[in-house]
Design a protein that fits this description.
alpha+beta
C-alpha cells in the first residue's frame, strides 16, 4: 500500500467526511455571503479550509459556518 494512500486513510479517520461539505469558490461565497476577495483573504489567513482538485479550488463549506460561530454577537444577548 502506498504511503499517500495510508496518509489519506488516516486523514479520513481523523476528519470524517460526513462532518464536511465541499463546494466551489462561488458556492462558498454564496454560503458565506461575501465576495471572492474576502473568501481568498479568509483562506490565506487559515480561517476557512480549502483544497485544490484538478486545478479547481474546493472550499470546506462547514468551515464557513464554524467561522461564523466564533464571531462576537452584536447588540444585546440573544
Amino acid at each position: 500500500m502506498s504511503e499517500q494512500l495510508v496518509d489519506a486513510e488516516l486523514r479520513a479517520l481523523a476528519f470524517p467526511s460526513s462532518t464536511k461539505r465541499w463546494g466551489s469558490r462561488r458556492k462558498a461565497c454564496e454560503e458565506g455571503n461575501f465576495g471572492m476577495t474576502k473568501l481568498h483573504s479568509l483562506i490565506n489567513r487559515g480561517l476557512i479550509e480549502a483544497r485544490k482538485l484538478d486545478g479547481k479550488t474546493q472550499v470546506n463549506l462547514t468551515s464557513i459556518h464554524q467561522l461564523y460561530e466564533t464571531l462576537p454577537r452584536l447588540g444585546g444577548t440573544a
